[in-house]
Amino acid sequence: MTPRDLSATLFARLPPDLHHTGEPTDWVRVTRPGQRLHSFLEGPCFDGAGHLWLVDVPYGRIFRVDPDGGWTLAHAYAGEPHGLARLGDGAFAVTDYRRGVLRLGSDGTMTPLVTGVNTEAFRGLGDITRGPDGSLWFTDPGRSSLTDPTGRLFRLRPGATSAEPVLINIPYPNGVALSPDGKLVHIAVTRANAVWRLLADAPDPLLPMTGVFLNLSGGLGPDGLAIDRHGRLAVAQAQAGRALVFDRLGDPLARIVLPEGRWTTSVAFAPDADVLFIVEAETASIYRADLSDLPATAF
After folding, report:
1. pLDDT range class, residue 89, cuts 50, 70, 90
2. What does DSSP say about strands 52-56 and 41-46: parallel, antiparallel, or unpaired?
3. DSSP letter, residue 33
4. Are the C-beta atoms of residues 85 and 129 closer than 8 Å to each other?
5. Strand order of the sheet with strand 194-199?
6. Sheet holding 9-13, edge to edge
7. SS3 state at 152
8. Model confidence pLDDT, tens digit, residues 34-61
9. With contact defined as beta carbons under 8 Å apart, do 269 and 279 qualify?
């Protein structure tokens, strides 16, 4: 099946007065050697009022973008936030590369939810999502890759104080998204240029059977994932300047090439509309694409 080419329009761009102008952090020096980044946006997540929240990884900032495109620096701290998941009480769970999973309260306080596993620190956390049952699923890529396939996927159940390792053999797990019913978990495996899928409650909890749902080509690999209420999967293709949309069977529905920038990091669906928001970190931009003409069910 040939995917449709859809266009994306600019929704909002980080204002110049919010650009970081100081020295590069260690994260910038390792991931973008020789560059001076004004920001690196990731982890979009909508709140109940329709505001889009997202993080600035190297500079510890969390932004709120209004429905009209206005930006607010909602929180800043000494950390490296990578992902956001909305909690039931209006707060957010934040995956921090060095500090674990944190809770960002509505009053701006940040408290740890879980900082490691089996008395050891995480390798370096990536993305996070919240399932229908309230469980938090998050990835722990560290610096894993095909030569060191030791990235991990964790689950933190409601009320639990420790996280359960689900998979421990992933070459850079990144984005994570659940099907609308919460039964299927999709993982962006960036360094293998693939999306894996497994049952959320697999019969074998020790070695859950996991398969390749999608194989991609080009770019760095899949980064952020998002699934809408129809079960359509959106994939941000890192360093390719585009997002891809697939139906529930993994057949391609659409390709969305951005008009500017190649660092497509993450995606988020509007809560109650067939609109996909795409974050592009090179230009610190958020784009939107209308998906209302795409099939809402699998072929």
Report:
1. confident
2. antiparallel
3. T
4. yes
5. 173-178, 184-189, 194-199, 210-215
6. 9-13, 285-290, 275-280, 264-269
7. strand
8. 888 999 999 999 999 999 999 999 999 9
9. no
The whole-angstrom separation of Cα 261 and Cα 281 is 8
pLDDT of residue 296: 84
Residue range 134-160, pLDDT digits in tens? 999 999 999 999 999 999 999 999 999
Question: For residue 229, what are the contacts with CB-CB under 8 A and spacing of at least 6?
Answer: 180, 269
- DSSP annotation of 38: S
81 is written with which tokens? 């936030």
The domains of the chain are located at: 12-222
DSSP assignments along 181-236, one per residue: TS-EEEEEEGGGTEEEEEETT-S-SSS--EEEEEE--SSSEEEEEEE-TT--EEEE
Name residue 177's amino acid. Answer: A
46: nearest Cα among 189, 182, 229: 229
As beta bridge partners, residue 148 has 145
100 is written with which tokens?
């674990």
Query: Is domain 12-222 given the CATH code 2.120.10.30 in the classification?
Result: yes
Q: Please, are residues 163 and 191 in contact by the beta-carbon 8 Å criterion?
A: no
Closest CA to 8 of 282, 275, 283, 233: 275
Q: Name the token pair of 238.
A: 């890192």
Tokens of 18: 């919010």
